[in-house]
Amino acid sequence: MTERADELTPMMAQYFELTRQYDDALVLFQVGDFYEAFCEAAERVARLCEITLTKREDSTGEYAMAGIPIDNAESYIETLLDAGYRVAIADQVEDPEEASGVVDRAVTRIITPGTLTEDELLGGAANNYVAALAREDDRYGLAVLDVSTGDAYATGSDSLATIEDELGRFAPSEAIVGPAAPTDPFECMVTPYDERSFSAEQARERVGEYFGPPERLLASDAEVRACGALLAYAEYTRGGTGIGEDGRLEYLNHLTRYDPREYMVLDAVALESLEVFNRRSVRSSDGLTLVEAIDETACAMGRRELTDWLRRPLIDRDRIEARHEAVDELVGAVRTRERLHGRLREVYDLERLISRVSRGRANARDLDSLGSTLDVVPEIRETIADSDSAKLQAIHDRLDDVPEVRSLIAEAIADDPPPELTEGGVIAPGYDGTLDELRETERTGKAWVEDLEQQERERTGIDSLKVGHNSVHGYYIEVTDANLDQVPEDYQRRQTLKNSERYYTPELKEREEEIISAEQRADDREYELFVDVRETVAAESERIQDLADALAQLDVLVSFGTVAAEFDYTRPEIVEAGIEIEAGRHPVVERTEDAFVPNGASLDREHRVMIVTGPNMSGKSTYMRQVALTALLAQAGSFVPAERAQLGIVDRIFTRVGASDDIAGGRSTFMIEMSELAEILDHATEDSLVLLDEVGRGTSTTDGLAIARAVTEFVHDELGATTLFATHHHELTDVADELPGVFNRHFRTSREDRVVFEHEIAPGAAKASYGVEVADVAGVPETVVQRAADLLEGSETTAPADDGRTPTRTNGHGPTAPGHDGELASADDETVAGSGAIRDRLREVSIAETTPLEALQLLSELQSEIEE
Ligand code: ADP
After folding, report:
1. Binding residue per annotation — 619?
2. What is the pTM (predicted TM-score) of this model?
3. Crossing angle, helix 350-358 and helix 300-311, to 10 degrees?
4. Which of 30, 221, 634, 773 has the most crowded Cβ, counting Cβ within 10 A?
5. Which atom of ligand 1 is nearest to the CA of 592?
6. What percent of the chain clears pLDDT 70, i.e. is strictly above it?
């Protein structure tokens, strides 16, 4: 149908007007109990939500129509969001019974992936961010906001790569970008948003209104623009109800401005390969992520805070140590920890509650939850009152139970209030005289009606006479047909039924009006009172948010303490530089492996590049990750899984780990590998920790080795970064002889009747060939493996016994470099397989890429070569 206004009914004209105004959203238009979409939009909604497309006919024509029930609209809206739409909710904002013409409707909120506030849509406690990116000359400004909690951050940089790293931390689900700002760093819904709100002038004004003078708060115009535009967007999506006249979102009153250099940099690649928040692949789908493994928080705010601490580990020594000191105190204090944990479990999500309160969306239950949360604060405060830790003391001082709000809620809100606000029962008796009087009138009226039946029976002598109520006709006196002759004169007929008549008396009618009017006025009064209470609470949102933050921090510290006690973590000592770990463990793998083998690590400025060799599955990746996770945990403020740890502060963790496992769209895995490598070589400093796993595997052996070697030299000579480099390029271990800062470690396997991975790291390099092990692990029949092993043994050159002092390995490359701690290659380092072609061929085997069949094939070839 065409939408010519003169041909439309008023309702459809209203619909099309709204779709024009909100042309970047799907308008859902309330008609009674449904949200409707019409015409093309209806077809889209019907298809996506799998609901029936119906037809509507009016005087002007026929339209397609699709309706979703308001009662469970959330799941449909979720589907529409997932399909990439914004949803504009056009509610009836007028009582249909009171409307003179068509019912007035207005868009009350725009639901977008990054600005969700509905618990049902948020699905869980995790933060949900919307980001804004602005650009001014060469400067980028990034602002990030969680509308549901009020968490707001701003940062900036000259480097787009830095901005990308920051985006990796927040993983926003939606972004808006200003003029000249790029859209490609985002992996979410991106909208070029209204340029005016990105304008410096508008932005400055908005930031000023919300957070205070922008020049004191933010570092560049680009940041101001990003923040301003983001606030404008939040206002735009918030809808109209319950907000101050100027449209401000009062609960957004605190902005954290930070410099990316204040935190350890963890880009998306590192977070992913260390499996901090997400598992990397289906392969490890049964394992835990780091955050799951160490999350012992009691409340939703703590859970979000823990995520934040892991996402932004500190690099300031004092701040790190302050957290450690707090954890130290809590580890030992079992009873205190348990008491705090118990109380924190009773804490509701204050951040989301106060955000709903400020947006005028909180109901009486929300206020009730807020009140009961404030009620537990004094006990929590008292529990840490005597704490020695400065951090816990600081938290103690911020545990403000906001007594005015607490007592207001206790006095005003009824116990166990209903979720609806307009039907009464939300305000406690005794809070308001007028309300109490109205309720009393209502009550006495109803009591009078209740007594009426008995009275009228006595007066009329009709024993079967009944007094009742129905919603259409109100109160009535019912008399069956058999007794109609006894009906007194003052009865007036109200309704005729099959076997009876219904009457009222003037007095009953009067009482009825009294009851209805009192009830209606009481409900209205309750709503008014409630809104007043809600606004009074909203005015304290800053204090409540501060309390929320203090509770969240405490919850994380208690959680760190619990994990440390339960899993035997130790307090790391922060030192100038280097990594010295004794008996370290992988915080996640140790939970799933029955017998996890602890391993140490020792790196310092002089010995900063460790080359790790060993067969597939021997534990190299686990080891490297455990070192990185130890640094990450320590700087987040946690204790670490080790017997002892001395750690220098790391400015950034880089990882280039096994892209060969991933199926990446578009670019070849080698390309990804090389671009990740480029990023590392560009940005690592001598304070960085670099994990390299199998660099150069995606190309030929010669190329790969050349690249691996060049990288090692560059990292060693130019960057000076602390580096762990796992490789199957055995030749790389020779670099240790040539560069003073490079040393070898390997994972050994023991051979009894079958290869056993010991998962234990040892000094020196591993032997070069693992063909037989691979064959064994791959399930090649025992006899074949054994025969191959015999053949290999026969061709090995026997080295003199290693006495632990003289380097004796004769692998054709001279002596193995000793570890920097002076340890030498240990006795069970096996000598490399014999000379010539067989050795070379074995060395060239790329274990990761060898299938069992190929391994068999290779064995058979080797066998025939030897026999020749
Ligand atoms: P690689 O990188 O050498 O191929 P991984 O680090 O992936 O080996 O380890 C292979 C498997 O061995 C892991 O999945 C883990 O279950 C187990 N593992 C690794 N390190 C240890 C350890 N220190 N103690 C016990 N098991 C371990």
Report:
1. yes
2. 0.81
3. 100
4. 634
5. 16
6. 88
